[in-house]
Design goal:
The complex is a heterodimer. By secondary structure, chain A is of the alpha+beta class. Chain A has helices at about 20-30, 35-50, 55-70, 100-105, 120-125, 130-140, 165-180, 230-235, 455-460, and strands at about 5-15, 80, 85-90, 110-115, 150-155, 190, 215, 225, 250-255, 260-265, 275-280, 285-295, 295-300, 305-310, 325-330, 335-345, 360-365, 365-380, 385-390, 400-405, 425-430, 430-445, 450. Chain A has 3 domains: about 5-90 and about 105-120 and about 130-230, Rossmann fold; about 245-330, Elongation Factor Tu (Ef-tu), domain 3; about 335-440, Beta Barrel (Elongation Factor Tu (Ef-tu), domain 3), CATH 2.40.30. Chain A is about 20% helix and about 30% strand. Chain A has a 6-stranded mixed beta sheet, with helices on both faces. A 6-stranded antiparallel β-barrel of chain A has the order 9-10-14-12-11-15. The longest helix of chain A is centred in the middle third of the chain and has 18 residues, at about 165-180. Chain A starts with 5 loop residues before the first strand and ends with a helix. Chain B has helices spanning about 1-10, 15-30, 35-60, 65-110, 115-135, 145-165, 185-195, 230-240; strands at about 170-180, 200-210, 215-225, 245-255. Chain B is elongated. Chain B is an alpha+beta fold. The longest helix of chain B has about 45 residues, at about 65-110. In chain B, helix 4 runs antiparallel to helix 5 and helix 5 (about 115-135) crosses helix 6 (about 145-165). Chain B contains 8 helices and 4 strands. Chain B starts with a helix and ends with a strand. Classes of the chains: A alpha+beta, B alpha+beta. Chain B: EF-1 is composed of 4 subunits: alpha, beta, delta, and gamma. Chain B: EF-1-beta and EF-1-delta stimulate the exchange of GDP bound to EF-1-alpha to GTP. Chain B: This is Probable elongation factor 1-delta.
Chain lengths: ~475, ~260
């Protein structure tokens, strides 16, 4: 694996019976992740059992069985390579708690892959109104996953097999479906595939001579190709936000003998270097970073995606906590929010939400109760147009612009500026009842707070 | 180290094979009414009990005004649906009868013609329109014919699916458990975590991963049945071990 390839994350969504795990498995098996010895072992077993002709199925089954036992925690199981990218693939589970993870979790997807099954009735069941697929697709779009690929799977089991008519029918239906969510179908690659047999996965299939390839039109440049892997290669690479201001939400804070206080977190935007004078919002504590480490190795520079620990002087472990955000004191430093305005989509609340509702919000690593101070307007999710001013209440399926007030000091940002700090899950009764993206933040005045001697010295030294 | 070895090389494969064999033999032996049965019946009882109490809980949550009204409406709709279905099948019968009659009559009068068939199909589609509304389809642009085809396919699919064994949806999760400092004994922490048990939860492999400045975290994988185990519950349970655990983060969350 050379170092020149860019890393991207994709999330695979679709009905449980869409064959998305088979498709995911196919990609990982053929292009990645699983070490050669494991595959060779399973392939040999298949031969010995006289299942040579079903070698592929056998290996996939074995890998699944291995996952079910949880006997490996190798994250490589979910990685593969294309010509251009290293890909980490998330096979979206149906588990209800997955939604929260989609929002606060470690990897924001750069592209979503929607898998639908071409089999009679299977497609229709898969994209039914109440399906989880719709919810996942809607969430992906809301959370800023603007690229989409559609795999029309199980083409081998359409009637008749590899039917062009069926493919066109599904393509039309899915186009209107994703358009309702907000995607532009012209910018979406549609590929007829069989994850099981491998048609149009890595190589163009001879079973579908009618398929002339997929095409996408987008302002960053058009693309075309024939296979699913081509479509993955045509994903626009994410702009890694190193040129933005530093934002590092704290996960943990350690006190280490002989070293001192060590906050740990992931750099979301910007860079962190030894010597940076950082401020921790919302507590507004300023100090100097002595050194930065990742996996026990000293770093001269931590970039977005790096999970790092850094050593700060004159700050006690009690002054910092999970949910605080570190930023550069001299370049657009983070501040506490007095209140903020967000677009909230109610997913699955049993009753009605009115002004005064105070659930817990999970935003980056923070976990703080916030009050729905004012539900300003109900809006059309797609266009953002107001459909009702000052609604008395909102319920499942509604989108609304809401003013929220945190019950304790909290640091958040507008989604436009700092996406990972600008999206949140609304938790109530151990469920994700709503999700939101922050439109604007009314920051508190950053007066008061503590400036350590180390910070003073570092600042003076530079003058 | 041990774990890494497991990753690459399956030394105790025979043990797993044996375990797998036992697992698959298990249910069959039970049907033989062997010595397993008291335990099995005990489990069955417990399951029933859980099922009952769950149903009761459902009942309770359904009790607030809005939902019971919904339930009523649902029941009503279901009734109507049944009624309409019978009516539709009646109409179908009538229709085929008429078509036959028409055909024979037409044959008698002026040979074979396809027109009556076309005419006959139209009313059928209209009949089914009522059915569509019942399914709560609110997309106005959809014409009756398309909806009918969709419903037919769904029905065929449902029938096909009913025959298939339902697969239990599971997820594979990797949790990062972080200690307080470099002095926390991760081994004891792990032992304590593995003591957390729950129906549908299976602990998997684990390893210690360096974080920074001599601190290590525990990465532990588990497999959960989606309907049985809440990940919030699980992280809360782990965070209750507050002598050891500072925080829990989800490193990976995938469908199996």
């Amino acid at each position: 694996m050379g170092k020149e390839k860019i890393h991207i994350n994709i999330v695979v969504i679709g009905h449980v019976d869409s064959g998305k795990s088979t498709t995911t498995g196919h990609l990982i098996y053929k292009c990645g992740g699983i070490d050669k010895r494991t595959i060779e072992k399973f392939e040999k077993e298949a031969q010995e059992m006289g299942k040579g002709s079903f070698k592929y199925a056998w290996v996939l089954d074995k890998l699944k069985a291995e996952r079910e036992r949880g006997i490996t925690i190798d994250i490589a199981l979910w990685k593969f390579e294309t010509a251009k990218y290293y890909v980490t693939i998330i096979d979206a589970p149906g588990h209800r708690d997955f939604i929260k993870n989609m929002i606060t979790g470690t990897s924001q997807a750069d592209c979503a892959v929607l898998i639908v099954a071409a089999g009679t009735g299977e497609f229709e069941a898969g994209i039914s109104k109440n399906g989880q697929t719709r919810e996942h697709a809607l969430l992906a779009f809301t959370l800023g996953v603007k690229q989409l690929i559609v795999g029309v799977n199980k083409m081998d089991s359409s009637e008749p097999p590899y039917s062009e008519a069926r493919y066109e029918e599904i393509k039309k239906e899915v186009s209107s479906y994703i358009k309702k969510i907000g995607y532009n179908p012209a910018a979406v690659a549609f590929v007829p595939i069989s994850g099981w047999h491998g048609d149009n996965m890595l190589e163009p299939s001879t079973n579908m001579p009618w398929f002339k390839g997929w095409k996408v039109e987008r302002k960053e440049g058009n693309a075309d190709g024939k296979t699913l892997i081509d479509a993955l290669d045509a994903i626009l690479p994410p702009a890694r936000p190193t040129d933005k201001a530093l934002r590092l939400p704290l996960q943990d804070v350690y006190k280490i003998g002989g070293i001192g206080t060590v906050p740990v977190g992931r750099v979301e935007t910007g860079v962190l270097k030894p010597g940076t004078v950082v401020v921790f919002a919302p507590a507004n504590i300023t100090t100097e970073v002595k050194s930065v480490e990742m996996h026990h190795e000293a770093l001269q520079e931590a970039v977005p995606g790096d999970n790092v620990g850094f050593n700060v002087k004159n700050v006690s472990v009690k002054e910092l906590r999970r949910g605080y955000v570190a930023g550069d004191s001299k370049a657009n430093p983070p501040k506490g929010a007095a209140d903020f305005t967000a677009q909230v989509i109610v997913l699955n609340h049993p009753g009605q939400i009115a002004n005064g509702y105070t659930p817990v919000l999970d935003c980056h690593t923070a976990h703080i109760a916030c009050k729905f101070a004012e539900i300003k307007e109900k809006v059309d999710r797609r266009s953002g147009k107001t459909t009702e001013e000052n609604p008395k209440f909102i319920k499942s399926g509604d989108a609304a612009i809401v003013n929220l007030v945190p019950s304790k000091p909290l640091c958040v940002e507008a989604f436009q500026e700092f996406p990972p700090l600008g999206r949140f899950a609304v938790r109530d009764m151990r469920q994700t009842v709503a999700v939101g993206v922050i439109k604007a933040v009314n920051f508190k005045d950053a007066s008061g707070g503590k400036v350590t001697k180390a910070a003073e010295k570092a600042t003076k030294g530079k003058k | 180290m041990k774990v890494e070895a497991l990753d690459k090389f399956w030394a105790d494969k025979s043990r797993y094979d044996l375990a797998e064999k036992r697992f698959y033999e298990g249910p069959q032996k039970v049907t033989d009414r062997s010595h397993y049965s008291p335990l099995v019946s005990e489990i069955a009882k417990a399951r029933e009990h859980i099922q009952n109490s769950l149903e009761k809980i459902d009942g309770v949550t359904l009790d607030d005004g809005l939902n019971s009204e919904l339930a009523k409406r649902l029941a009503q709709l279901e009734g109507e649906h049944k009624e309409l279905k019978t009516q539709v099948s009646l109409l179908n019968e009538l229709l085929t009868a008429t078509v036959k009659r028409l055909e024979t009559q037409l044959k008698l009068t002026n040979g074979v013609s396809k027109e009556p068939e076309v005419e006959a199909k139209k009313p059928e589609a209209n009949d089914d329109d009522d059915d569509v509304d019942l399914f709560g389809s609110d997309s106005e642009e959809e014409d009756g014919e398309a909806a009918r085809i969709r419903e037919e396919r769904l029905a065929a699919y449902a029938a096909k699916k009913a025959k298939k064994v339902q697969i239990i949806a599971k997820s594979n999760i990797i949790l990062d458990v972080k200690p307080w400092d470099d002095e926390t004994d991760l081994k004891v922490m792990e032992t304590e975590i593995r003591k957390i048990t729950q129906d549908g939860l299976l602990w998997g492999a684990s390893k210690f991963v360096p974080v920074a400045f001599g601190i290590q975290k525990l990465s532990i994988s588990c497999v959960v049945e989606d309907d049985k185990v809440s990940i919030d519950w699980l992280t809360e349970e782990i965070e209750k071990l507050e002598d050891f655990v500072q925080s829990v983060d989800i490193a990976a969350f995938n469908k199996i």
